[in-house]
Amino acid sequence: MGFLYAISIISLGFALLNLFKFGRETNIINAIIIVVTSLMSFVALESLVLEFFTIKSSLWLLSLIHLVFSSYILYKRKIVPVKEWECKLIGWDIAAIVMSLAATFGFSVYYYTLDLSVRFETSDPAIHFFLSKKFAQTSHLALTSTDLFPFQHLSTYPFLDYVNTGLLMKVFYFIDNINVYMVGNLFLFSLTILLIYALLKEFIKYDLFIFISMMVLACTGYNLNSVIWGFSSQMAGIIMILSLLLINKTLKNKIDRGVYLSLVALHVLGVLFAYYYFAPVILASVVIQELVIRKKINIRSLFCLENIVYVGSFVVFAYIYLVHFGSNIENGNISSVKLEGYITRDLYSTFAPLLLFAVFVTLNWIKERKFEFILILLSCLLLFAGIILIAGLQGYASSYYFYKNHFVIGLLLIILYAIGLSKVKEKSKALYISYVICILFFTLQYTWFDKYINQKNALFNPVAPNYVGQVFTINKIKLNQTEVILNGEEKAILNEIKNNKALYLNGADYLPVLGGSLQLLWFEISTEIWPSYDDRTLYALFDETVKMDIKKWEQDPLKNPYLLVIGGKGREAFSERADISHYKIIFSTKSKSTVLYKYFSN
Questions:
Q1: Rounded to whole angstroms, how far apart are CA atoms 187 and 176?
Q2: Pairing mode of beta strands 513-514, 562-565
Q3: How many angstroms separate the CA atoms of 333 and 317, rounded?
Q4: What CA–CA distance (Å, rounded) separates 536 from 438?
Q5: How many CA atoms lie within 13 A of 559 on its CB side?
Q6: Backbone region of residue 369 per phi and psi (left: phi > 0; alpha: psi in -120 to 50; beta: other values)
Q7: 313 phi/psi in degrees, rounded to 5
Q8: 70 and 12 Cβ atoms separated by less than 8 Å
Q9: Does the global pTM surpass 0.90?
Q10: Running DSSP on this structure, what letter comes out for residue 486?
């Protein structure tokens, strides 16, 4: 069935490519990116519609829907022979693809190693993985699931990412689900880099320094931070926003009006389904752009066909998603914006180096009365962030949700910064070269140079540099300090326990586990063996001081005799409290850092 689903997705993608008609201006990279993001949003949309009618999103049904849609599109539009496709793939495109893939692979090998170790800074990825796995198992959105213990409060969590990841788990059922999830995260990282490239080449002429440096910024800034923290749903939302910018820049007034409206509406809904926090700003931006295009605000322009389609589709599906399904669940309401969370907090230092040329191009466009969609979107985002900041200072919003805006603003500023730098080059090559030299000198503080001089002789460099662009510094630190939650061997042990759950539960409904909080969470989500000994709850997982009473467990005549010890923290707790002479090793990692024991009394 997975093969049929793959064929149906390819056929629907081919049909969408035909809608673009491949004029002389069409670039194959742009077309493929837009098709991929359109398919991601469409799959999420059809899953929501099926859920509304309490129908499973099974592979065969989704495949049938895709084949029907693709057949209809190709019948109505007629198939354009490949030889007539007037598209172009230039050397820069190939270089960009190679760079994005190389950056993704390099990061993956360095950070996750070749066995794709689970390594994240927060607990968020475990929840994303769990929701993906549950969708793969049940073919239902979490919106109506009743067996999500202990995560029922997350039922209305944005679903675009976990639906697409869950379907990949179904298609690639022969690959470990955790590995599928990890590769999905890396795909989002790589696609964001390609989107930055695709947008840059629509705004500026090719320039080796500008394009490489901007892609490096996209690799190492907020995009990388999202992967380290594990914000996959947020990454999917940002991809939808960037793709919406690309559609606006490359296809507006160049393809059939109905097709364009459908693509924009689909991506606005994509933002809603991927990360609904951004959705109101995106909707406001597309509506404002239509008013700007018409150069006057009145009833007729406000209720133009475009705005009716965008707002109408948004209201209908937002109601189904957040009201119809979410009315009985304490999640997704406006009060949740007050909840704090773990996130990179950098008020403006990351933006400071980008502002000079970003403001320069903005003022030039305003002077020329050239109101690009990226300016409208950035203005709306800044206004929204300002409102959240004021609300936060009054206690009505959290800093966590204020800083969510930075992940989008940072990428938009990179694009504007590159455009401004390109304009400066056109006006003064001397100034451009001087700036390039300054930037190269500025990057020294992010390399080994300053530290090396300080270590050799502190008198030559006594004070650590005051970093500008704090997110890059944070990423550099976290790349080295973030602990591995589960390595390849440990994932294999979890799979062994999951596949032989009856044996290792030994008639009980729990398996005692010692480990760090994130390791416990990933164990329980992977195996779906929930904590019950000593009345441990989900909240105990986030308190490192809450530890199992081993002595009490050993004295329990009804206990499950198996005990799993995971990693350094688990090993430390075990060695401090247990008498090793009463335990037999069932299996373990080569380093003995993670061991499944069986307790026996003399």
A1: 17
A2: parallel
A3: 16
A4: 56
A5: 21
A6: left
A7: -65, -40
A8: yes
A9: yes
A10: B
d(CA 215, CA 317): 35
| 80: DSSP letter | P
CA distance 343 to 339: 12
Bridge partners of 208?
A: none
* pLDDT range class, residue 528, cuts 50, 70, 90: confident
Residue 584 pairs in a beta bridge with 598
Which of 34-38, 84-88, 444-448 shows the highest mean pLDDT? 34-38
Instruction: In whole angstroms, give the CA distance from residue 303 to residue 67.
Output: 35
Can you give the length of the chain in residues?
A: 602
Which amino acid is present at 574? F
The per-residue DSSP string of 494-528 comes to HHHHHHTHHHHHTTSS---EES-HHHHHHHHHHH-
Decide: helix, strand or coil at residue 169: helix
Indicate the residue type of 233: S
Peptide bond into 561 cis (omega under 30): no
CB 40 within 8 A of CB 160: yes
Distance CA 596, CA 514 (A): 10
Q: Summarize the confidence of residues 330-352 as an average pLDDT.
A: 77
Between CA 145 and CA 350 the distance in angstroms is: 41
Residue 309 pLDDT = 92
Mean pLDDT of the chain: 86
Q: Which of 519, 503, 541 is nearest to 511 (CA)?
A: 503
pLDDT in tens, 477-507: 999 999 999 999 999 999 999 999 999 998 8
pLDDT digits (tens, 9 = 90+) for 380-431: 999 999 999 999 999 889 999 999 999 999 999 999 999 999 998 888 878 7
Residue 582 token pair: 């009463």
